Automatic annotation (TrEMBL):
One of its GO terms (cellular component) is cytosol. The lineage of its organism: Bacteria, Bacillati, Bacillota, Bacilli, Bacillales. This is Probable transcriptional regulatory protein NEOCIP111885_02263. SUPFAM superfamilies: YebC-like (SSF75625). Keywords: Cytoplasm, DNA-binding, Transcription, Transcription regulation. It is found in: Cytoplasm.
Length: 239
């Protein structure tokens, strides 16, 4: 799969360590998920997923509670889910997912972040066909063989199981996300290092040093936008 999920998370956590940006973005995502159905994760799969993901980022309980209470309170604030696709230097490809209450602002900001850093926005579908939607679940304290046994016992099919550092990372179809977690929870495993629905590039590319520096500046500029929730790309960052 070519991804070092723990290293990616550590880099992101380090970047956001002294800011509240990551928590604010989760607040919006939780609010939107809670508004999409019942504000109860047991009956709202979208909310259940985002809460599982928030847990792996150590989002404080008061942020979660405030977002859910806002949804319960009947707030009329509405957000649109948007996906942008674009290109960076040397054939790099980028997908940007956003939640916004101002579509024009977000489109302008994302376009500027691409354009000012050597990239350009593409049309819908110009990049996404080179990525696969994937569930990624990571845990510690088990070997890959033990994880495989648990999943086989639960009759859950996955794409791949890899050992990374001290973690085991499971890659599965998106609709198997909750089934994979449920299988682990049946064995008392409730803490996960990774719990993501992501877009994985079918093929990663390596960039020369100067292009890689420019690419990373572009990604940082996009991720720093308040409306941007997640960014996916096809570049091997060498982490």
């Amino acid at each position: 799969m070519g991804r070092k999920w723990n290293n990616i998370k550590e880099k992101k956590a380090s970047k956001d360590a002294n800011t509240s940006r990551v928590y604010a973005k989760f607040g919006v995502e939780i609010y939107v998920a809670a508004k999409s159905g019942e504000p109860n994760p047991e009956s709202n799969q979208a909310l259940k997923f985002v809460l599982e993901r928030a847990k792996t980022y150590n989002v404080p309980k008061h942020i979660i509670d405030r977002a859910i209470e806002k949804a319960k309170g009947g707030s009329e604030e509405s957000y649109s889910e948007l996906r942008y696709e674009g290109f960076g230097p040397n054939g790099s490809m980028v997908i940007v997912d956003a939640l916004t209450n101002n579509v024009n602002r977000t489109a302008s900001d994302v376009r500027a972040a691409f354009g000012k850093n050597g990239g350009n926005m593409g049309v819908s579908g110009s990049v996404a066909y080179m990525f696969d939607a994937t569930a990624v679940i990571g845990l510690e304290g088990k070997t890959a063989d033990e994880v495989l046994e648990i999943l086989m016992e639960a009759d859950v099919e996955v794409r791949d199981i890899l050992e990374e550092d001290e973690s085991v990372i499971v890659y599965a179809e998106p609709d198997q996300f909750h089934a994979v977690q449920a299988a682990f929870k049946e064995h008392g495993i409730t803490e996960f290092t990774v719990a993501e629905l992501t877009m994985l590039a079918q093929n990663e590319i390596e960039l020369p040093e100067d292009a890689l520096a420019k690419f990373e500046r572009m990604i940082d500029a996009i991720e720093d936008l308040d409306d941007v929730q997640r960014v996916y790309h096809n570049v091997d960052l060498g982490e």
